[in-house]
Amino acid sequence: AGYSEAKDLWHNAPVDTLFPRTLAGPGAGPGSAARTWTRIVVAPDAACTPAVLAKGLLATVRPLGCERVLRATYTDATASSVITVGLVFTDADATVQSTLGQGLTSRLGQDVPPSLPGPGTVAARFGAPQRASWWLNAPADLPVVVTAVSGFADGRPVDSPQPADRAMTAGRTDATAQSGLGHEAKNITLRFEQLLRTAVAPPPTDKAGKDDTDGKDGDDAR
């Protein structure tokens, strides 16, 4: 039931549910440092086209029935990095979805998601040359592909964007790795998967109306 309900989140759920104004990421930075992201721009929902999806991902999801793409850009607490999150809703049935995410990043290679700049914001210069690290995942229990691409807020171009797992490799000394942009790209996708699960299956509450998780797992969106 939750899987079917999730297919309609793109037009049934409020924007602040799908893209919270602020999002906490405990342990999301290098060395398990905490991160807090603030939403700075939201795009209207869009059809699945090359303007909003990387070529390889579009070719992968189009045969499944690509329903709609939602995107928003966030910045970290220091406003030194920016990150565009994409929610790609598909019509894939649960059986297909359960296998879609297996090795998806490695299968697509250098398939970097498009960035979403925000005129008049710290993401004003977040264009294609500024993309530094990215990640994507198709959770088995949701008809969605979650993507994220990160970059520097100062507009510096990056010659060789890196998938998050490579940017997170120990011992790397390049700016993308040391700034934690790989950590942010990978961990924000995990936070959004959790948010979508909560949207279709909110945590139970006791008689006093308190969240039974005691704030341990459900307080990321504020």
Overview of the structural elements:
The protein is of the alpha+beta class and 222 residues long. The protein has 9 helices and 7 strands, in the order H-H-H-E-E-H-E-E-H-H-E-E-E-H-H-H. The protein has helices at residues 2-6, 9-12, 15-18, 55-61, 94-100, 104-108, 164-167, 175-178, 181-200, and strands spanning 22-25, 35-42, 66-76, 81-90, 131-137, 144-152, 162-163. A 7-stranded mixed β-sheet has the order 1-2-3-4-6-5-7.
Largest sheet: 7 strands, mixed
How many E strands? 7
Q: What is the average of the pLDDT values?
A: 88
Helix count from the secondary structure assignment: 9
Provide the helix percentage. Answer: 25-40%
- Strand percentage lies at 15-25%
Low-confidence stretches: 213-222
Using only C-alpha atoms, the radius of gyration works out to 17 Å
SSE-based structural type:
alpha+beta
Q: SSE order, as H and E?
A: HHHEEHEEHHEEEHHH
Shape: globular
Overall domain count: 1
Question: What's the helix and strand layout?
Answer:
Blueprint: H1 2-6, H2 9-12, H3 15-18, E1 22-25, E2 35-42, H4 55-61, E3 66-76, E4 81-90, H5 94-100, H6 104-108, E5 131-137, E6 144-152, E7 162-163, H7 164-167, H8 175-178, H9 181-200
Parallel strand pairs: 5-7
Antiparallel strand pairs: 1-2, 2-3, 3-4, 4-6, 5-6
Can you tag this structure with a few keywords?
222 residues; alpha+beta; seven-stranded mixed beta sheet; 27% helix
